[in-house]
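Researcher: Please translate sequence to structure tokens.
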Amino acid sequence: MSSTLRKILSPRIRALIGAVALTAAAVGGAEVVAAQQASAAGTAALPTCPFWTNVTPPPRSDTPWVPPAQTAQPVDFAHNRLAPPGGVTGTLTGGQVNITFNRVPGAQAYRVWRNGQSVAWVSDWGQPALTAVDTAPCQNAYYTFEAMSAQSGADSTLGDMSAPYQLNSAGSVVPWQTPVGSTITMMVTSYNDGGATASGYNAQLGVCAVDPRVIPWGTYFTVPGYGTCFAADIGTWIQNDTVDVWLPGTQADGWGVQHRTVTIIANPFGGPAPPPSSPPSSPTSSPGGCSAPAWNSATAYTGGAKVSYGGHSWTAKWWTQGDVPGANSQNVWTDDGPC
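Model: Translation complete:
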């Protein structure tokens, strides 16, 4: 997307305002509670995860491409920053997810995110346990965590973002790793806005905006012609199969609108490696047991069409193209269950 159009529409500014507003709501409403002993409840009754705004992006076609002047190298957020909190556990009970995590030496506060939206800002005043509550959970939600060395939330105080965790179908929050080597064909646009991203990190080469329901925050991936992205931002128009890469100045205009096949990679800096996640929740690939053809973002589907995605079978309710099964605000796909 051109920088001029972004200045007119300011979708990223609206995204940041939305994140700040949700943070304020979390501070005032999503209270920090004592740890609860409860067995997890299944997620079948939860809604599919909606996009955070009901804005519909306009149709966009590929444009001429001017190669960037540099290749984006992986950004190392672990260098000289606090480590992410470990010991993360969470259970769904009573329609909410109760989360606990370990204290990080030197941290004054913590951020908890669900699909790029603030769930809680937890101040560390020496309480026996660090806990947070997600009062609006959704199926297969992804959670990420940050420790902060000060309460300001400025980039310089933010720790390394955790690898993602997922609310699995059993109602437990568990470590998640999108299978390394997974590929997704995406619309790739570009932006050049300065200042803080939705995660709080400063906008910079190698920090990219995603739909966190598709590529969870805390994930590294490569984009042909750009380099390596770290998923840590959102945008009003960055929905479903769209990625927004950061480029300086007029290079963002030169990128325009492209389609690229992006590839999920392991943390280049050897961050904590969560155990393999169960195939039925995979957002990018289907196991061999699924008989329906794999969902493809470039294919147009009519009502009744069946696909496999994330280890589940899905049926289209009406015509659709580019709407990710289980991760679109129109809820166009019916989940027929694991396959």
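Researcher: Any highlights?
Model: Helices lie at 3-9, 11-28, 251-255.
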